[in-house]
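Per reviewer request, we include the raw input and output of the structure prediction for the construct analysed in the revised manuscript.
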Amino acid sequence: MANTYTLPKLSYSYNALEPFLSEEQLKIHHTKHNQAYVDATNALLGKLDESRKTKTEIDMKSTLKSLSFNLSGNILHEKFWENIAPKGKTGKPSNALKKAIEKDFESIEQFKKEFSTAAKTTEGSGWAALAYCKKHDKLLIMQIEKHNVNIYPMFQLLLVLDVWEHAYYLDYKNDRAKYVDTFWDYSDWNAANKRFGGSEK
């Protein structure tokens, strides 16, 4: 099958984010969990291609539901890897993004508070995300369940945080709050700035 999805490459080594994420935690998350979403996505796309070629009917509802889950999981993980960086290499919000955050959240501190609360209170497995609506020039926080529930369609994702247990459990056990609070020292604003600058505002 042409144009298959591949595991996103990391721009840092597996031990570069310690003590935020241990080498073991990051390696398992990247090579096992993310790889599983990539493999499932490619298998489902292959299933759809094969059904078209052979004119064989498949359970479209369950196939597309599974594709949404796995493909969204891969996309969010790719953005997450770009949204974290070794301490000291994370940059800061650009002037444009800083002004937008202050316009919609009153301050950077208030935004971080709301984002952290969203991450800490996501039910079960999911994500917190800062997203931008081009049409209304507005930033909003998404509290995504699983990988594909409560998504705002057509919003540009600027900053995402994975709060599935597999993202932090080896290092933090059940202390999701500590993991979320530590994230801010490793959140890569350079990636968020680039995405915001490329949103065709």
